[in-house]
Structure formats: structure tokens, C-alpha cells
Amino acid sequence: MQKIGSITSSATASGEFTDGVVAAGIEPTILPAAWFNTIQRELVNIIVSSGMTLDPNDDTQIAQAIRGLTNSSVGKFELSMKRLYQLDNGWYSLNGDTFLVSSPQGKVLNSFSTEFKADWGISISGDRINLPNFFSKDGRGAFLRVVNGSSRQVGSWEDDKIRNIWGNVYSFNKGAYIESASQGALYISSTWNSSIKSGSGDNWGGIISMDASRVVPTGIENNPVNLGLTAAMYLGV
Of the four, 67, 72, 112, 122, which is 20 to 30 A from 222 by CA? Predict the structure, then answer.
């Protein structure tokens, strides 16, 4: 969009209008048609962008357009690079926070369709209504996956699990004693002598242990390589 200073040199140094001071040699800002055309095009674009056709008999079209463009964003979700306290106005963290049903946020949440609220766990308890919650009970954030339209629908929650980790331990007789070996996640962590075989000192006993870190990376939770972002929802209020 152009400022008046982009069209005429009679504007101020900052590109704004001035009444001028004729006695001091400062002329008032000239109002060329180019500036009015700029304003008109900007206003027309607001209406057209909303999908409406210009109606010379309707003086509410700009208000309708702004309302429609704003409402079309309500309920949108994004992964934001901003921290919780840095979210723009109208955006809220998806952490299950509650609001009074009568509050601006509560009214927006309650205005969503029954199906949308059911999918995302938005419900009324007493006089309060909650945001969707992307966190498990122990505070871990959920990883997002594309739905498959059957077993996984929008909003469906799936608890964590890992692929099977296997291992085995085997032994065989070798002459007068038993020899053992292991592979995979199972291993023989120690053996001990027993005098059950005629008082000899061969290794006749052992402890079989399980350690998944022998075959896969481990940590305090199951997770893929990941990057931290803030899950946020736009309510517009």
C-alpha cells in the first residue's frame, strides 16, 4: 500500500498529510486521484479476497469480509517456533487449560461442532470448558502422526510402545560340563561354581540378564529424533 508521500512531494518527510503553514512557506498536502485510487483498491481487495462480489447497495461488505476472514482462521492449529508466553494474541497452547464457558475463549470453544469437540476432547465441566490437550498425564508431549482414516482418526490418542526386542540363551553339553552362550538383548551376566558334580568346580549356574541398550539406543522415554515446538490453537480472542 502506498502512503501519500509516495504519490506527492507535498507530504511530510514521514509520508503523512499536513495542513501546511502558508506563511512559513509550507504548503498543505495535495490530494491527487492516485491516493484515493490506492485506498479504493485496498478496500476492494478486502471484499474480493473474502469471496464476495462488490455490491454498491451494501455498505457492510468490508465488515462482513473482515469478520469472515477472521472467523476462517478460528480453530486452526500450528506448531509455533515461539515459547508459550510469546504466542501472538488469540493463540493458545494446547495444554488442556480451561476457561469459563461464558468467557470469550469459552464461547469460541463451545461454538465448534459436536464432532470437532468430541475428536479433540473439548468438553464442559461445571461452568468451564477446556482446550485440547496434547500432553499425557505425566507431562510428556505427544508426537503427531497422519491419520489413516480407520484405526487412527483426528484426535485419537495412542499410548507409547516399542517394537519387539528379542534375544536368546542356549546351552549344550560339552564333555563333562555344560557350556552356554547368548545373543541379542539377553546375556549371561555371571556364572557360579557348584559342587553338585562330584565336587568339581565347573560353572554349573548362571544369571541371564536383559539389557535393551545392547541392541538399541535407550532413554527415559521412547522417542524419535525430534525438535521442540509449541502446539497452539487460534481462538481469535
Answer: 122
Tell whether 54 and 10 lie within a shared domain. yes
The pTM assigned to this predicted structure is 0.57
Domain region containing 8: 4-71
Tell whether 113 is covered by a domain: yes
User: Does some domain include residue 222?
Assistant: no
CA angle 69, 71, 76 (to 5 degrees): 105
Ordered per-residue pLDDT tens for the chain, 237 residues:
889 999 999 999 999 999 999 888 889 999 999 999 999 999 999 888 878 899 999 998 888 888 777 667 888 888 999 998 899 888 999 999 999 999 989 998 999 999 999 999 999 999 999 999 999 888 888 888 888 878 788 888 888 887 777 777 665 545 555 556 677 777 776 665 555 455 555 555 566 777 888 888 888 877 788 888 999 998 888
CA distances from 95 to 24, 70, 83, 175, 197 (A): 62, 23, 13, 65, 64
- Region of 176 (left: φ > 0; alpha: ψ -120 to 50; beta: rest) is alpha
Using CA atoms, how far apart are residues 36 and 8, in angstroms rounded to an integer?
12
Torsion, Cα of 85, 86, 92, 95 (10° steps): -50
Q: How many CB atoms lie within 10 A of CB 75?
A: 17
Task: Please state the φ and ψ torsions of residue 124, each to the nearest 5 degrees.
Answer: -100, 130
Q: Which of 21, 37, 20 is nearest to 29 (CA)?
A: 20
Structural domain tally of the chain? 3
User: Has residue 221 been placed in a domain?
Assistant: no
Rounded distance, CA 55 to CA 47, Å?
10
